Amino acid sequence: LHAHLREPGHEEKETIATGTRAAAKGGFTTVCCMPNTEPPLDTRATVEFVRRGAAEQGTVRVLPIGCITQGRKGQELAEMGELAEAGVVAFSDDGSPVANARLMRNALAYGKTLGLPLIEHCEDPVLSEGGVMNEGWVATRLGLRGAPAAAEEIMVARDIFLAELTGGRLHIAHASTAGTVELVRRAKEKGVRVTAEATPHHLTMTEEWVLGHKTGTGPSSAAPLAYDTSTKVNPPLRSSRDVRALVQGLREGVIDAIATDHAPHSQLDKLCEYDMAPFGISVFETALGSLLSLVHAGLLDLPTLIARLTVGPAHVLGRKADGLGSLRVGAPADAVVFNPDEEWTVDVERFVSRGKNTPLHGCTLKGRVKLTLVGGAIAYVDEGVQLG
Q1: Residue (of 191, 194, 351) closest to 264 by Cα position
Q2: Of 45, 103, 191, 198, whose CB count within 10 A is highest?
Q3: pLDDT above 70 as % of the chain
């Protein structure tokens, strides 16, 4: 539901070809690519470029997301009608919140007429300015500037009010705080058309991972390493209280979907001081294994996890449960086979993705994808699987 394929403009980080291969290895048959490319996906031409590239090079299905504003600059609306005609499935300025409330109101109203949701990166850019991790005791101990949870929650509250005002469909990207979960819960009780997603890392990792303590609900840890730039992500890894609230929201359906926010970077990008490193974690190939830690710990049942990874995202986009249209008996299937009990050690050198930036390197995960079918064709098969 939320991924960065980096093409066009940053092919050194990822390409449509490598990103979709990594997605297939992770068990994903359809990915929605965010528009923060160079140039951004704010015109028919750029959307068609991605769709053509996916048709020619993609291993899995790619659904493009168009910009809300021209150039993602937050000043003028993009030609949303033209983008819808070009085939986008949603609108977002991901990475750049729409700070102007009037502009966001108009975008929600326009999105309503087009029948498409707006996916909002909720962050007050003034309140979070300069923050590189969660504001709290870990940031204080490490001497890093923190971004408060309120920076997210203030914008979530504003956008919920605007969704209620316009009747538009609002989707909260990468929810990360207990306050956000509560705001979404109350909005749904009022009948506001709002949905939300959480990422594998916000569901299984805490701010203590920046300190080098790989603890909490997540997978078993490797050797401690403070200031690991692979833990730098936006929104930041939060407190254990926030993680518990997100997992509870996922169980209850307040959080509708799990989205990877796969954000690959080159190794050179992350080999620097923590303050200077870009935000983002490469997630496609570790998502299932890390999420199954919640199942193995008894915090989530397996059917709920699968639902939040499959029908949940499809429903966010307003599509039927298969994410494509009506099911047909005998139609070529999208299917994933995985072993929930197989243990494996994360080795970034074996990643298909060009992005090797994950704090899970060296960690042991329990649960591995063995086979991925897209439209009845094999998109990925694990090297240990014999077909015939």
Answers
A1: 351
A2: 198
A3: 95
Which are the contacts of 317, defined by CB distance < 8 A and separation ≥ 6? 1, 32, 63, 89, 90, 117, 323
Other CB atoms within a 10 A radius of the CB of residue 230 amount to: 22
- Return mean pLDDT, the chain: 94
Q: Extract the tokens encoding 154.
A: 């203030």
Contact residues for 37 (Cβ-Cβ < 8 A; gap 6+): 5, 6, 7, 8, 9, 10, 46, 50
Q: Strands 194-198, 146-147: parallel, antiparallel or unpaired by DSSP?
A: unpaired
Using alpha carbons, select from 357, 337, 177, 380 the residue that is nearest to residue 261: 357
Q: Are 118 and 91 in contact (CB under 8 A)?
A: yes
pLDDT band at 321 (very low <50, low <70, confident <90, very high): very low
Residues marked as catalytic = 261
**What's the whole-model pTM score?**
0.95
**Beta bridge mates, 381:** 371
Mean pLDDT of 76-93: 97
User: What pLDDT, on a 0 to 100 scale, did the predictor assign at position 224?
Assistant: 63
Q: What is the DSSP string of 186-242?
A: HHHHTT--EEEEE-HHHHH--THHHHT---SSSPBP-S--TT-GGG--SSPP--HHH
